[in-house]
Amino acid sequence: QVQLVESGGGLVQPGGSLRLSCAASESIVSFRAMAWYRQAPGKQRELVAAITSDGRTNDADSVKGRFTISRDTAKNTVYLQMTSLKPEDTAVYYCNAKRLGIATIDYWGQGTQVTVSS
């Protein structure tokens, strides 16, 4: 069973920074893509950033220029570096891994809370 464990969330003031980590139980390059999603109360879960197995990245317009997704394959870990945080970034952030088969298989972490408030 694939396990994904997020860490690094917390309370931060507007304009501050946080780095989230997602530790996977197996090689992250065995997945077609890994991604960060977030969900705020009363809102749909949304894609924040994704990185493919060959290292290409894609960011949501709402975080472009502020958030950076990266990986350390030796550590089986994906990161989300968040800067210039805004109150609207407040959400539970989830790590996601996709594997292609007969159908796409999605794996999810338990989530980590990020709260941006003064």
Protein model, in words:
Strands 2, 4, 5, 6, 9, 10 and 11 form a 7-stranded mixed β-sheet that branches. Strands 1-3-8-7 form a 4-stranded antiparallel β-sheet, with no helix packed on it. The radius of gyration is 14 Å and the shape is globular. The chain contains no helices and 11 strands. With 118 residues, it is an all-beta fold. It has strands at residues 4-7, 10-12, 18-24, 33-39, 46-52, 57-59, 67-72, 77-82, 91-99, 105-108, 112-116. Helices cover 0% and strands 52% of the residues. The model has no long low-confidence stretch (mean pLDDT 97).
Sheet of most strands = 7 strands, mixed
CA radius of gyration = 14 Å
Number of helices: 0
Give the termini separation. Answer: 40 Å
Report the structural category: mainly beta
Helix content: under 10%
- Average pLDDT, rounded to a whole number, is 97
Number of strands: 11
Judging from the principal axes of the Cα atoms, what is the shape? globular
Task: Please state roughly what percent of the residues sit in beta strands, choosing from under 5%, 5-15%, 15-25%, 25-35%, 35-45% or over 45%.
Answer: over 45%
Along the chain, the helix and strand elements come as EEEEEEEEEEE
Low-confidence stretches: none
